[in-house]
Amino acid sequence: MMKKYVNVAEYMEDLPQMQQEVIQIMRELVADAAPEAQETFSYNMPAIKQNGKVLVYFAATQKHLGFYPTADPIVHFADQLKEFHTSKGTIQIPYDKPLPVKLIREIVAFRVKQVTEK
Q1: Which Pfam families does the record cross-reference, listed alphabetically (predicted)?
Q2: pTM for the complete prediction?
C-alpha cells in the first residue's frame, strides 16, 4: 500500500537523493514560471494551483519524472514533446535527460493563461 503524504516536504523525505534533487529543481522551476501560484499537494503528489485550479502536477517515479499538465498542453506542444513518452495528460521525463526547462516554463505559462482566461 502506498504511503499517503500530507505535503511536499514529507513526500521528498522518502525519495532517493537524485529524485529529491529533480523534484526540488522542478518545484523551483514551476514556482518561477507561475509566481502567483501556490504549491499544494494533491493526488499524493506535488502540484501548483492558481485561481483555485491546479496548473500542473509532478511526481518522481522509479525511471522518470512524471509531469502532469493536463491534456491540452500535450496537444498544443506535441511537436516539442516528440522525444518524450506522453499520454493524454502525462509527460515522462527520463532522469538521464536534462529537464527541458524552456518547454516546462512554456507549458506552465500555457496553463496559467488557461486558468486565468476562464
Answers
A1: DUF1801
A2: 0.93
